Amino acid sequence: AAVGKGNYRHFMEKELHEHPAVLGDTLRQYLDPKTLEVRLPRLPFDPARITRLTISACGSAFLAGMVGRYWIEQLARLPVDADVASEFRYRNPPLPEQGAAILISQSGETADNMAALRLLKEAGQRVLSVVNVPESSMARESDGALLTVAGPEIGVASTKAFTAQLAVLACLAIGFGRARRELSTLDEGRLAQTLLEVPSHAAAILEQDAQIRELAAEVAKARDVLFLGRGALYPIALEGALKLKEISYIHAEGYAAGEMKHGPIALIDSEVPVIALCPSGPLFEKTASNLQEAAARGGRVMAFTDAEGAKALSRFAERVIVLPQLGEFSTPILYAIPVQLLAYHVAVLKGTDVDQPRNLAKSVTVE
Ligand code: G6P
Fold it and tell me: Are 130 and 165 in contact (CB under 8 A)?
């Protein structure tokens, strides 16, 4: 049956509002809410035995892979190489014997990533794909597939499939951590608990729509926008910039907050919104001090944070959006939602074709 927009103006808006349900469905697939245990189906490789992991993807799926790298390295102490498929396929990287790879794709048909898959298999790698379309080429040709339970995604710019990819990768990181004896049952339970709280917090963030629309009104006037984040929120800063570019056609860059002083700081003036993803936690002080530097140069700091972080940031930020506070592990999933929502509202204000942005395709099946 054809998928409709229901009462929403755009598919993208509808799909943004599906975040809580999709996250719940995807997490339930891989996480037992009663025992707080990750339950993965049989994988094509043994995470306890591999020495390295390769992640390949394109677009937003690659940014999910970057978050996955932070998580897997941290929880499973496994070195991870994450690259865009178009680079990976021509890089001729040295691959370990019996090595393992994860491919991430909503459609499961993206040409560059299909080429990466064939190359990996020729090189004797065991390939697991994380896909949204069960009957896709990638799901069929991989040695194993984990499904994101996002349902059909129609808007060209990925939204719910992206957070569902994060949910699967979070479960994989926990599962790998346990398999490699890097995580205790207690740690596993604690991490699982924060993941299980994500859907209700996601719903609460969608309720903050009016606040994000106000921020969008400011951002819509800008010519350039800078997104900053650190750690696993750095890829989310990239996702914020990518979405804004794709659907509102405003030039945006995502940067690792600590790298700002090596470049983007030169762009900062009173015209450039600096959008920061800065939850409280171990990296808070570091990011906050980068933001203060931006503010000291006349930059307009607009921060997404939590109640604790807001205390310090409201001293110099022009706007602070207070998001629900959640265990550090789950913040990348949660913070993806307001940056996607922001891009959506900016695009609506600019009157662009939100669901079919110019020059872009939902699934890029040619190189
Ligand atoms: C296109 C879409 C993006 C998507 C990317 C990768 O560029 O516009 O939203 O992230 O392709 O697609 P895939 O289907 O492999 O996830």
Answer: yes
